[in-house]
Every structure is written in C-alpha cells, then in structure tokens.
C-alpha cells in the first residue's frame, strides 16, 4: 500500500504542467474561430460553410467542432456579449421607462440583433436555447419584461414568452428581406404591441 500511494498521488499531477499552454492555445483558437465566423457570417450569412470558417481561422475542422459542436453553438458564442449587453441595458432603464415601452425597445433591439447576419433570424430560437450566459440573460430579460408589462396591465395576459420570440423572429425576417432600418423594425414592433395591448 505504501509503495502504491506515491504513484497514485503523482498520477493526477503529471498532466497538470502541460495544461497551461494548451489552455492558452485553446483560448487563442477560440478567439480566431469567433473572429473568422463573424467575418464569414457577415459575408455569406448564418448558413455559411463551417469548413470555410475553419480555413479562415487557420484551424482544422476538428478543432472547430471540439470548441463548437453545432452551428447554433457557434452563433450563440458570437452573440453572447451582444445579448449580455442588451439585457444589461434593458434592466438599467427600468426606472426611466414604462413597462410597455421597455418591452418594445427590447423587442426592437433583439430583432435588430437577429438580422445582424442573413439567416440568423430563422435560427434565433435554437441559438437562444444554447445555454450561454448571453442567451440565458436575453431569454430571462424577455420573460421579465413581458411579465412586468402584463402586471402593469399594458399587455394581454395570454401573451407568452414563446409568442414574443416568434414575433422577434418574424420582424427580423421581414427586416432581412427588405428594409432593415431601425425605423422599420420599430414600426413592426409597434404594430405587434398595439395588437396585444390589454383591453
């Protein structure tokens, strides 16, 4: 037993030394993949080839899939910081805006984000379910704002968070197909909220 314990103690320590450079390499690869994905998605849309993204990032396709096993996971990672910022900005204006106005602004901002890459609107539901901090924050903020507007009596009680997501996707698709200006997105969001206003 005494002869085995030093070996047992040493076994987990052996791989620890080389892990630090691997982590640094992995972080660099991740950033290169995200930067390349942003470029390629902007050029070709959210359904662009993942092989092309790997080549642009100068990594193997296996490395890309180890970091991001699905297209949705890659899009969620790219969206993460933007969604976190949207949720934070939305919470910060609680004291200055009425609940229905806060909800409308968030819908507009989320729809504008979903039309950032051509084809992202169709994938938005799956992307938001990816579980990244930004996706979780964006989803939770949508639920919170809807509940707040319903509690204030400005939105019908039968409107669900899933309804909101469908509307955001529809607005994004409409913007993607035609005029993607802020005024067009705001107009469409206003039409929806006027239609679901509490009577």
Automatic annotation (TrEMBL):
GO terms for molecular function: DNA-binding transcription factor activity; transcription cis-regulatory region binding. InterPro entries: Homeodomain-like_sf, HTH-type_TetR-like_transc_reg, HTH_TetR, Tet_transcr_reg_TetR-rel_C_sf, TetR_SbtR-like_C. Transmembrane segments: none annotated. Coiled coil: none annotated. Residues 27-86 form the HTH tetR-type domain. Keywords: DNA-binding, Transcription, Transcription regulation. This is TetR family transcriptional regulator. Residues 1-25 are annotated as: Disordered. It comes from Achromobacter aloeverae. Residues 49-68 bind DNA.
């Amino acid at each position: 037993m005494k002869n085995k314990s030093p070996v047992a103690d040493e076994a987990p320590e052996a791989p620890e030394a080389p892990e630090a450079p691997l982590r640094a390499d992995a972080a660099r690869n991740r950033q290169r993949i995200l930067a390349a994905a942003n470029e390629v998605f902007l050029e070709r849309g959210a359904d662009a080839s993942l092989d092309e993204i790997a080549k642009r990032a100068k990594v193997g396709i296996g490395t890309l899939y180890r970091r991001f096993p699905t297209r949705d996971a890659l899009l969620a990672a790219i969206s993460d910081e933007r969604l976190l910022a949207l949720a934070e900005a939305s919470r910060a204006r609680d004291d200055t805006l009425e609940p229905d106005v806060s909800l409308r602004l968030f819908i507009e901002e989320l729809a504008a984000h979903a039309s950032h890459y051509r084809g992202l609107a169709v994938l938005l539901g799956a992307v938001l379910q990816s579980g990244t901090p930004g996706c979780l924050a964006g989803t939770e903020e949508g639920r919170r704002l809807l509940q707040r507007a319903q509690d204030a009596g400005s939105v019908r009680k039968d409107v669900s968070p899933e309804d909101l997501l469908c509307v955001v996707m529809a607005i994004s698709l409409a913007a993607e197909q035609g005029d993607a200006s802020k005024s067009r997105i705001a107009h469409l969001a206003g039409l929806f909220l006027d239609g679901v206003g509490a009577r």
